[in-house]
Specification:
By secondary structure, the chain is of the alpha/beta class.
Length: 878
């Protein structure tokens, strides 16, 4: 077995060759599989092609921190990391050839061609695969025993597209393990079998990762090619819909056959300055497999970087086809900038015996491996002794060096995702061949004319069988969907890089399409190691700090929507989470706290018997009722005394009873409002107090009429008596009763809650129903009181035995003052204090009437009984 690459160097330019591999089915006879120890294809082989990146030819300055125009040093460099991909192909072919259950009597072989990362050379290599192995004759096959059946590759999408352009003519299957090429309107309907999961699944995983850690301000690095452009066009709107913004979007230069070193370095310096000066701590890299090789140059190229300061750390998020690789000149370079990076990788698993297979690889164990000596020299920085050429570039290679001692950026003992894809690709071709052979045998096609006829069948027939589903030796099921894409997921890997350049992968999550949609993305953030810059604290990547609860976002004009100011929530609204777009109101049963970041349950508020204010007012009402009862008892006990008889004692009793009811009406305003209490509190008090004021008005008019009746020849005598007083009381009371009846009949009061007046409380109150009727009742009482006050004031100097008119005047002055003060206080009060104000007004006005009219008389009855005699009354009159 042999795989060899041609290498070309041009001074001052960068070359990235690739290789095309083709594998064969060897010796289709009955003797069984033969060992793969041949350098070139042997007769009777079926060819499988393959593509991978393997070697750089570098012309670079001796000092990367120097100016690009410095002295250059030309060096042949192998990407040692990708040597495992060749071993994976060899191991898969060896495993199939040693397993008689897969392809009995059939062996596989392969051959490698170099594409040089150049379209012309890729086309030539592809034509060599299609032609006979011993002679390059395009479109002509003179060797019927060696047949190309498929090609595996490439890691680079552009190379895959070049290869597919020719393969499409012959309908030869191509299995690629890198990103799918970008098709355009002029591209024919090329058929690829992708050994990696659907790219859309990776986009979903990337978005889920960013949203999980709330990284809303990110940078994006892509390659300056069609794949990078497609990524930009797809991902930018996809991410933006989820609120993710982009601090920068830069394109890394492509490494081509003719890349000017000076232009490359200047472009990289510019990109490095943009990345490091950005506030975005997260950078998504969607490039080619060698992107890390370019990125590792960045810290050494910036002319502006302050060497005394530690470079700012970033969280690098790598796409699935990017590996942590190092070139030989980068051996002593630190890879610390990628410590803590998060990479999406194709799911991989070590097949049995692969580790031992790799462990046994050494230069002395094979003479047909055209790459192992160069790999060994560059991986271990040594040279093999050559008696012809004196090589002093390093230590002498013994061949006993251990691959496991190499840093992970140079070589890994465990199978990587790319190698696992190649391994599965070889097995997919083998199982497809097995299915095709079984199909032919079932029709007895091979038995008729021998095996040669079978192998001359067109290779396009393999397409029908490549949709095969099988279990590989690692125990994984391998199958394709209807689009020829592998049905698999991605592992999310955390890169751990140690100071000695050793490299360790830690699986921290996965993207699995075969689970329910809400479980596709899983991650264990506790197992992630972050870059030392972040002191093991989860990094933030925001245009500005989060808006704390109690604030909302306000987008800055002319900037991306991820850049915003934080403004406090307006009165009555809250925000409970960070970065809220808008504040919102609490439910009716809650109110905002002082920080406006949470809702607090409201208290149910009403004038209660359980609070001090309610208790105080209730005690006042009961106390006044008791005093009124004592006054009534005193009057009734002295029923026939002159002071009681004076000015109509029946009016006095009526007034005392109405005042008692007024005091008791105050209790209707205390306690939780009910339907009955709401109906009675205003109407009952309005009628009763109107009776009380009517009694006072009747007393006042009686005093005036009594004085006028004493004049000689006055006709007022006929009006003096009980009849006039009763008419006044009944007529005035009936008017108020009529108003209240209309009120109750049209829009009666009812229990209600007020959630707007006081933010912290739900006020249980009596809704007055018709506020007009309420003010009519109140206004009528005020009218009666005003009339009584004016008449009493005008008659205050009339002669009277016990100063009745003066006491009435003073009592009505108190009553009117109370109710005049009540109106503005009532209108400005809120909650339970409205009921408290009205209760106080009822008690104050009623107590004013009781005190001003009856207490002086009680004083005379109790303490100055000598004045309560008829003789004294006559003496006073005379």
């Amino acid at each position: 077995m042999s795989y060899r690459m041609l290498l070309v160097a041009v001074l001052g330019e960068l070359l990235l060759p690739q290789m095309l591999c083709k594998a064969y089915v060897v010796n289709c006879g009955i003797n069984g599989p033969q060992p793969l120890q041949h350098k070139y294809p042997q007769p009777g082989e079926l060819i499988i092609g393959g593509i991978t990146s393997q070697t750089f030819i570098f012309s670079f300055p001796l000092d990367f921190t120097a100016q690009p125009s410095s002295t250059v040093f030309e060096e042949f460099v192998v990407v040692t990391k990708y040597y495992q991909q060749i071993l994976a192909l060899v191991f898969a072919v060896k495993e199939i050839n040693e397993n008689p259950k897969i392809l009995p009597n059939v062996s596989l072989g392969f051959q490698i061609y170099d594409s040089y990362f150049d379209a012309k050379k890729t086309y030539r290599a592809t034509m060599q695969l299609i032609s006979s192995p011993k002679g390059f004759v395009p479109n002509y096959k003179c060797d019927c025993q060696n047949n190309l059946i498929s090609i595996i590759g490439a890691l680079d999408s552009q190379t895959s597209l070049h290869v597919a352009t020719l393969l499409d003519i012959y309908k030869i299957p191509q299995l690629i393990y890198g990103p799918a090429p970008v098709m355009n309107d002029k591209t024919p309907g090329l058929l690829f079998y992708q050994m990696v999961p659907n790219k859309d699944l990776q986009y979903v995983g990337l978005r889920s990762l960013l949203l999980h850690f709330r990284w809303m301000w990110i940078g994006i690095l892509t390659m300056a090619n069609d794949n990078g452009e497609r990524f930009m066009q797809t991902v930018l709107p996809f991410f933006s819909q989820s609120g993710i913004c982009f601090a920068f979007r830069e394109r890394l230069p492509m490494l081509t056959f003719l890349t000017r070193f000076q232009d490359l370095m200047e472009e990289l310096i510019k990109i490095y300055d943009i990345v490091m000066s950005s506030k975005a701590n997260v950078v998504v890299v969607y490039g080619e497999s060698y992107s890390v090789v370019i990125l590792r140059c960045l810290p050494f190229l910036s002319e502006r970087e302050d060497k005394t300061n530690k470079p700012k750390g970033k969280v690098w998020i790598m796409a699935s086809h990017i590996e942590l690789t190092s070139l030989v000149p980068q051996r002593i370079w630190t890879a610390e900038m990628f410590h803590g990076a998060i990479a999406f990788t194709v799911y991989s698993k070590d097949p049995p015996e692969f580790h031992q297979f790799v462990k046994n690889i050494n230069p002395s164990g094979t003479t047909t491996d055209g790459f192992i000596r160069e790999f060994w020299q560059q991986a271990f920085a040594c040279v093999f002794s050559n008696p012809v050429v004196d090589e002093t570039g390093g230590g002498i290679c013994t061949g006993e060096e251990k691959l496991k001692n190499l840093p992970g950026s140079f070589f890994e003992m465990s199978m990587t995702g790319h190698s696992y894809s190649i391994y599965n690709a070889v097995h997919a071709v083998a199982h497809a061949l097995h299915a095709m052979i079984s199909s032919r045998l079932s029709h007895r096609a091979m038995m008729d004319r021998g095996s040669v006829k079978f192998w001359n069948q067109p290779s396009w027939q393999l397409h029908h069988f490549l949709s095969v589903s099988f279990n590989n030796s690692a125990g994984d099921k391998v199958s394709f969907d209807q689009n020829g894409e592998l049905l698999a997921g991605f592992d999310i890997i955390n890169w751990i890089i140690f100071s000695n350049q050793s490299f360790h992968r830690v699986k921290v999550g996965e993207v699995d399409p075969q689970v329910p949609p809400d479980l596709i993305f899983t991650i264990n953030e506790n197992t992630i190691t972050w870059h030392s810059w972040f002191n093991q604290v989860q990094p933030l990547s925001l245009c500005n700090n989060y808006c704390h609860p109690g604030y909302s976002k306000k987008v800055k004009e002319g900037e991306p929507f991820c850049c915003y100011d934080c403004i406090p929530c307006p009165e009555g609204k809250i925000s409970e989470q960070e970065d809220t777009n808008d504040c919102y109101k609490c439910p009716d049963e809650y109110y905002p706290d002082k920080n406006r970041n949470s809702c607090i349950p409201r208290d149910i508020s009403f004038l209660s018997y359980e609070e001090s204010l309610g208790i105080c007012l209730a005690c006042c009402a009961l106390s006044f009722s008791l005093i009124r009862a004592l006054v009534l008892r005193t009057f009734m006990k002295n029923h026939n005394t002159p002071i009681v008889k004076a000015n109509n004692r029946n009016l006095s009793y009526t007034l005392l009873i109405s005042l008692l009811l007024c005091f008791l009406c105050a209790l209707l305003f205390i306690g939780r409002p009910q339907k009955l209490t709401c109906l009675l509190r205003q109407t009952a008090f309005g009628i009763i107090f109107s009776v009380a004021v009517s009694c006072v008005l009747a007393k006042t008019i009686t005093v005036v009429l009594a004085f006028m009746a004493t004049k000689p020849g006055s006709r007022m005598r006929k009006w003096v008596g009980k009849g006039l007083a009763n008419v006044i009381i009944l007529s005035c009371s009936l008017i108020q009763a009529s108003i209240c009846t209309v009120w109750l009949a049209t829009s009666p009061p009812f229990p209600d809650v007020d959630i707007h007046s006081v933010a912290e409380e739900i006020i249980v109150e009596c809704n007055e129903g018709s506020i007009t009727m309420f003010y009519c009742v109140l206004g009528y009482m005020g009218f009666l009181a005003s009339v009584s006050f004016m008449i009493a004031f005008l008659s205050r100097k009339l002669p009277d035995s016990f100063n009745e008119a003066k006491f009435i005047t003073f009592s009505m002055l108190v009553c009117c003052s109370v109710w005049l003060s009540f109106v503005p206080t009532y209108l400005s009060a809120k909650g339970k204090y409205i009921a408290a104000v009205e209760t106080f007004s009822i008690l104050a006005s009623s107590a004013g009437l009781l005190g001003c009219i009856f207490l002086p008389k009680c004083y005379i009855i109790v303490f100055r009984s000598e004045l309560n005699r008829k003789e004294q009354l006559i003496r006073i009159k005379s």
